[in-house]
Amino acid sequence: MKRKVLLIYTGGTIGMEKDYETGSLRAFDFGNIFEKMPEMKLMECEVFVHPFAKPLDSSDMGPHEWKIIANYIFENYTKYDGFLILHGTDTMSYTASALSFMLKGLKKPVILTGSQLPIGDLRTDAKENLLTSIYYASLYEKNEAVIQEVSIYFEYKLLRGNRTLKYSAEYFDAYSSPNYPILGQSGVHLNIVKENLYRCNSKDEFHIDLHISEDVLFWRIFPGMKLNHFKEIPKMKVLILQVFGSGTIFSSEKTLQTLQEIRNNGTEIVVVSQCISGGISFGKYENSNIFSKIGAISGKDMTAESAITKAMHLIDNPNYIGSFAENFSRNICGEISD
């Protein structure tokens, strides 16, 4: 029996080709991908293509588009064995993180990929990323999907989606998962590290939770920053502070007073690290104790992309029991190291 993979094309560099008269990149009709890549017809699975009506640059992808993708996967979940989302690289980690929280009880692969060069370029990385992603999306053993989570495949590596970040705009090896090991790596064989794979509760039925709030602000702390600017911004439900190292900030009575006023105004404060690797550890240094005093929430070793989308998903979400702080601190789908 041939496995069926649904390819959802949203846009991005992977779907571009060069207009040799003007030298500019333009989107091609992704419905003709089998003509562009005839080798896809030789694969051991069936690939069905669903392109967005209007391809989007990844900078235009956001909550509205995340819901469209999640809905489309939900509507077609029983028809296909795996799902592949072609996406621009700049915000792919945001989309992968958001989908990981929105797709509940997932027991089939949802893989995102893209490319640094257009599919029509002679030196492109698009073809390998696309073909290998299809293999991973159709990988089954004993009639069970090997991958049962949202992941990103890029330049020979399969990574957990909500653990990734884009760290290079230049190299083919553009994605990193600094705080979680790879799920698999392709070479002569498609390797999977099974002990690193996520599994939801086997009793959970697949469903979607499309709740997303945009009442989140992300702010990077820097030396010499004037915190009184915080008082001039409108009230938001969640403020995510990206601070130094393992959770430090300049220590002064003014800092404590300003952050406490924000908390007293009903805003939750989440703390994540500016370091790519490692995480937040309140109390490790004296200058992190301020966050314990004001009741801030540790983002632990989450990426900024994952912390932002998780906060957006949890704010005033009626499908969760308990407080925002309790739910944010909980490992929902492998986004935090236990």
Automatic annotation (TrEMBL):
<dbReference type="InterPro" id="IPR027473">
    <property type="entry name" value="L-asparaginase_C"/>
</dbReference>
<dbReference type="Pfam" id="PF00710">
    <property type="entry name" value="Asparaginase"/>
</dbReference>
<feature type="active site">
    <location>
        <position position="89"/>
    </location>
</feature>
<feature type="active site">
    <location>
        <position position="13"/>
    </location>
</feature>
<feature type="domain" description="L-asparaginase N-terminal">
    <location>
        <begin position="4"/>
        <end position="194"/>
    </location>
</feature>
<dbReference type="InterPro" id="IPR036152">
    <property type="entry name" value="Asp/glu_Ase-like_sf"/>
</dbReference>
<feature type="active site" description="O-isoaspartyl threonine intermediate">
    <location>
        <position position="13"/>
    </location>
</feature>
<dbReference type="InterPro" id="IPR006034">
    <property type="entry name" value="Asparaginase/glutaminase-like"/>
</dbReference>
<protein>
    <recommendedName>
        <fullName>asparaginase</fullName>
        <ecNumber>3.5.1.1</ecNumber>
    </recommendedName>
</protein>
<comment type="similarity">
    <text>Belongs to the asparaginase 1 family.</text>
</comment>
<dbReference type="Pfam" id="PF17763">
    <property type="entry name" value="Asparaginase_C"/>
</dbReference>
<dbReference type="InterPro" id="IPR027474">
    <property type="entry name" value="L-asparaginase_N"/>
</dbReference>
<dbReference type="GO" id="GO:0004067">
    <property type="term" value="F:asparaginase activity"/>
</dbReference>
<dbReference type="GO" id="GO:0006520">
    <property type="term" value="P:amino acid metabolic process"/>
</dbReference>
<keyword id="KW-0378">Hydrolase</keyword>
<dbReference type="InterPro" id="IPR040919">
    <property type="entry name" value="Asparaginase_C"/>
</dbReference>
<feature type="domain" description="Asparaginase/glutaminase C-terminal">
    <location>
        <begin position="216"/>
        <end position="317"/>
    </location>
</feature>
<feature type="binding site">
    <location>
        <begin position="89"/>
        <end position="90"/>
    </location>
    <ligand>
        <name>substrate</name>
    </ligand>
</feature>
<dbReference type="InterPro" id="IPR037152">
    <property type="entry name" value="L-asparaginase_N_sf"/>
</dbReference>
<dbReference type="InterPro" id="IPR027475">
    <property type="entry name" value="Asparaginase/glutaminase_AS2"/>
</dbReference>
<feature type="binding site">
    <location>
        <position position="58"/>
    </location>
    <ligand>
        <name>substrate</name>
    </ligand>
</feature>
<dbReference type="InterPro" id="IPR041725">
    <property type="entry name" value="L-asparaginase_I"/>
</dbReference>
<dbReference type="InterPro" id="IPR020827">
    <property type="entry name" value="Asparaginase/glutaminase_AS1"/>
</dbReference>
<dbReference type="InterPro" id="IPR006033">
    <property type="entry name" value="AsnA_fam"/>
</dbReference>
